[in-house]
Amino acid sequence: MHAKPLLLLSLLLFFERECTASTANKFFVDQRPNILFLMVDDLGFNDVSWRDPRMQTPELEKLAFDKHTVLLNQSYVNQECSPTRSSFLTGIYPHHVGVQDGVFQIMEPSGVPTWFKFLPEDLKTLGYGTYIVGKWHLGYCNESYLPTSRGFDKHFGIYQAMADHYTHFSGPITRPMRELAGGSDFGLDFWYQNVAQWGYGDRYSTDIYVEKTKLFLEEHDKSDPFFLYLAFQAPHFPLQVPKKYTMNCKQKTEDRRLLCVVYNYAQPEIGADMFGGGSGAAVRVGKYKLIVGNPGYFNDWYEVDATDINWRNADSYKPQGPLDSKVFLFDLNADPTESNNLAEQLPEITEIMLELLKEIGRSAMPSVHVSQADLRGHPSNFNNTLASGWCNYVD
Ligand SMILES: *[C@@H]1O[C@H](CO)[C@@H](O)[C@H](O)[C@H]1NC(C)=O
Ligand SMILES: *[C@@H]1O[C@H](CO)[C@@H](O)[C@H](O)[C@H]1NC(C)=O
Ligand SMILES: *[C@@H]1O[C@H](CO)[C@@H](O)[C@H](O)[C@H]1NC(C)=O
């Protein structure tokens, strides 16, 4: 959907809980940790201070190099929102959930099929309090697709991808959808327990999400553990940040500078490392990684000069002819930054891995996406909101 490397930075924090010795058994030790999972949307691999000193993310850096931190530097995520989020919450590859080919659109009459169980549903059976603050993006047209139907006790945030960080209004992303819908910023997408939140019209999303996180944790019954999924929308565009917030960001282009400021602003709350793979399809066997199709390319959206890690050659990732026919083969031992395409040099290995990819593809579930926007979901039917409750769920 967005032609840029969409990497998600996420951090999983486990907190030991104070032993709540039960009166029945004073030796009972509760081994259920509190879990805080932070997802940061669109953060690039190099957009952290330990890879690019001009990005100021000292709190993240502290967390990343804490002695208790496990830094996952070879984990792969899908480059887009809905597939990545569905993997996290179901534990299943996107192509086995039917969301392999992109993100859910506004007015799309679809969602992650309800027969897939989500992580908080399991945690609830263990007695956890379960909360999500921020972005959902796994379908919203039927109430059964909403966070509160998928194991979360509480949700405050947006159903869709990219609301304005101040007005909390969203619009259809693609041009055909915009034409159909008649506008770009046309529906409020801000919800608490599925009730539209009109009272936050001038406040920045990150501020509100931090506040709601604290509130949920305060309200949480401390005798049980919690699972809190904090899914910031920032720094996903629109690139907005409070004007009063001045940081020492010296990037050359306005977008890059803004990005630096936005990260700075979000980062005291976030941390750790997930390394995103490509879109299209990819498979790794031992040291070899094969990518077919669009691996994600730099699109001039921001400058990429600030790195001493040559993480792929920007030029080779600009669209040159049909991306779907591109095949990349990398030797990750010799070339961990994936800059040397061996596909032509090693045709046998390439062939075997292409076969493997096809084999994996055969197990894919048909896509659940519906490309035609459904006007039943038009915000004008719902007091100008992206409300739920206008489609049937897939069964
Ligand atoms: C990944 O982490 C391991 C263990 O911390 C380290 O030895 C290795 O060099 C790292 N690899 C990269 C590519 O950063
Ligand atoms: C409908 O929208 C207006 C803002 O345009 C808002 O003030 C009002 O509370 C909404 N009504 C309901 C029932 O949510
Ligand atoms: C949600 O989907 C179910 C199953 O298809 C359907 O029975 C129900 O009416 C839908 N809800 C709404 C509000 O359309």
From TrEMBL:
**Keyword Magnesium included in the entry's annotation:** no
Q: Where is the Sulfatase N-terminal domain?
A: 33-252
**GO molecular function terms here?**
metal ion binding; sulfuric ester hydrolase activity
Keyword vocabulary terms for this entry: Calcium, Glycoprotein, Hydrolase, Metal-binding, Signal
Q: Which domain of life is it from?
A: Eukaryota
Give the residue range of the signal peptide. 1-21
Alphabetized Pfam families for the sequence: Sulfatase
Which cofactor is recorded for it?
Answer: Ca(2+)
* Family statement: Belongs to the sulfatase family.
Write down what this protein is called. Sulfatase N-terminal domain-containing protein
Q: Which organism is it from?
A: Plectus sambesii
Lineage here is:
Eukaryota, Metazoa, Ecdysozoa, Nematoda, Chromadorea
